[in-house]
Write a structure and sequence with these properties.
With 377 residues, this protein is α+β, with helices and mostly antiparallel strands. It has a domain of 203 residues: SEA domain (Alpha-Beta Plaits, 2-Layer Sandwich), CATH 3.30.70. It is 19% helix and 22% strand. It is built from eight helices and 13 strands. Strand 5 and strand 6 form a beta hairpin.
Length: 377
């Protein structure tokens, strides 16, 4: 009896599910279109599409810097599978990274550009606010604030649109302009904003005998005012001009311009592009534009602290240990009376050691667990 009931139950489930004698059709979704990433020659060949993709990729995520005052200029390349109509939808937005190379973007150039136009929104004091009664802060020091993000994306969009229309930038496969942070710069101290002029009208003075000080001889008698209605002379203050002054601070944009190919003379290229930058451009490269040299990444958080803070992890960076020497703020060594570098000592007999093999900005380091079965530190 139990066997019969079991057979009936199984047969009923098979019938309900439609498995018996039913051909189940499956549909294969079409493959996604290839990703057209920033810096690709075929994307740059159509400037309008390149501008659309660049504008969409302004929303791509970036990490904050260690001091939380700006953003890291990420080296991955954002793109779109629908460059004529890009969106942030998963079927449209995509990212490229050449896995055969260590760094996807190796050619990046730093620019410090000060906004000196007449737009009030390009002044540092425009973004200040009172956090408390005695604490004044500024949105340009808060990279996650809407004001910071809005100005960052506006600057990036204007420079992106200018670069993609320059033949020399397209030839070197321009990727994007990435704003990292804003800085306060002294602008106009005691700037005259407006002037207030006070003007008064002085009535004709009367003589002590009651006659006007000056009367036209040909004037009819009826035009003269009665003596009872004449006013005594009023001594009015002279016209005064009151200047209204204020302090205005400029905003300096610290950004990185990225290319897939090296640019032999980036400063000349920037000089050509800058006048074409809408809203932020000028007729020539003034003194408010500088080109800082690329820095280096210190090893404090990697080779010096890693063994103690993350003992289960290792990396593939080459370590070159040398005696640690005393240095000036500009990283030059301090010499003793004999002209030799002053070595810093761990104790009376052992010198301190440090890794002087610095990484370049954008250079990658691979890290992994020493023991795959052990959790990361």
């Amino acid at each position: 009896m139990n066997q019969v009931l079991g057979f009936v139950v199984v047969w009923s489930l098979v019938s309900i599910l439609g498995i018996e004698g039913v051909l189940i059709e499956t549909t294969t979704l079409p493959a996604l279109a290839p990703c057209k990433c920033l810096g690709d020659a075929d994307l740059l060949a159509v400037p309008e599409n390149a501008k659309k993709v660049l504008k969409t990729c302004l929303q791509a995520k970036s990490r904050l810097t260690a001091d939380a005052l700006g953003y890291i200029a990420e080296k991955y390349r954002c793109g779109s599978r629908t460059p004529s109509l890009p969106t942030m939808d998963p079927d449209s937005v995509c990212y490229c990274k050449n896995q055969t190379e260590q760094v996807p973007i190796e050619n990046a150039y730093l620019v410090e550009y000060t906004l000196i136009n007449e737009n009030a929104a390009h002044r540092w004091e425009f973004y200040k606010y009172q956090a408390t009664k005695r604490l004044e802060l500024n949105r340009m020091d808060e990279p996650e604030s809407p004001q910071f993000i809005n100005l960052k994306q506006r600057v990036e969009e204007m420079f992106n649109n200018a670069f993609v229309t320059q033949a020399s930038a397209v030839e070197q496969q321009f990727v994007r302009a990435a704003v990292m942070r804003f800085q306060k710069k002294i602008g106009c101290m005691g700037c005259p904003a407006t002037t207030t002029t006070t003007t008064t009208t002085t009535t004709a003075a009367s003589t002590s005998a009651g006659a006007p000080a000056a009367v036209t001889a040909a004037a009819p008698a009826e035009t003269a005012a009665p003596a009872a209605r004449k006013k005594r002379a009023a001594t009015a203050p002279p016209a005064t001009t009151i200047p209204i002054n204020y302090d205005s601070y400029y905003i300096t944009v610290f950004m990185e311009v990225q290319f897939m190919k090296p640019v032999a003379d980036f400063q000349s290229m920037f000089t050509t592009v800058l006048p074409t930058v809408e809203e932020f451009g000028t007729s020539a490269v003034p003194a408010n534009v500088t080109f800082p040299a690329p820095g280096v990444c210190k090893n404090i958080n990697l080779t010096e602290l890693l063994p103690s803070t993350m003992p289960s992890m290792t990396h593939d960076k080459q370590i070159i240990l040398v005696n640690k020497t005393k240095r000036f703020p500009n990283d030059t060594e301090i010499l003793d009376a004999n002209g030799s570098p002053q070595v810093m000592m761990f104790n009376a007999t052992t010198p301190e050691r440090e890794d002087r093999n610095f990484l370049k900005p954008g250079q990658n380091v691979n890290m992994w667990c020493k023991n795959p079965a052990q959790k990361p530190s």
